[in-house]
Amino acid sequence: MLQHAFSQAIKGLLMHPWLLFNSELVPHYTFLWRNLKRKITGKVVPAKPAGGKANVFKPYCGLVVIGVHPDFRGKGFAQLLMAEFEKRAIELQQSELILSVKKNNTSAIQAYNKFGWSIKEEQPVTFVMQKKVGRMVAGG
């Protein structure tokens, strides 16, 4: 899923190059460049820790894009999509879900709050929201 999301992100940047200057993307240039080189060369080069200290990666599942066509809003589809996302995250043995939503998207923020999400971090234009979910036990 991550490789698909990365491919879609690159396609999006090629179609909308001005997004390269988005303040939320700039800190991730190193990550993008490293993955782009890996795609082109096929070589995997481990990331170097900043400041000589090992970076600790905390795994999570991120929701990139979700939407319901206006003709189908208010019919429970968003709830079904969110439930499926949570189910798949649990199947991947992840306990933290993350998404980013624009601050002015009050209807989405209200919906995410209704589904148990909370604001983790405030950025200039967006909120980073999170939800903790239970991990599935093997065989259960």
Q: What does this protein look like?
A:
A 4-stranded mixed beta sheet has the order 1-2-4-3, covered by helices on one side. 7% of the residues are buried. The chain has helices at residues 2-15, 29-41, 77-91, 106-114; strands at residues 61-63, 96-102, 118-122, 126-132. The protein is globular, with a radius of gyration of 17 Å. The chain has 140 residues and is α+β, with helices and mostly antiparallel strands. The longest helix is centred in the middle third of the chain and has 15 residues, at 77-91.
Number of strands: 4
Outline type: globular
Rg computed from alpha carbons, rounded to a whole number of angstroms: 17 Å
Mean pLDDT: 80
Order of helices and strands: HHEHEHEE
Helix segment tally? 4
Instruction: Please outline the major beta sheet.
Output: 4 strands, mixed
Helix amount, in percent?
A: 25-40%
Strand order of the largest sheet: 1-2-4-3
**N- and C-termini, Cα separation:** 24 Å
Strand content: 15-25%
The SS-based structural class is alpha+beta
The stretches of 5 or more residues where confidence is low (pLDDT under 50) are: 136-140
Oligomeric grouping of the chains: single chain
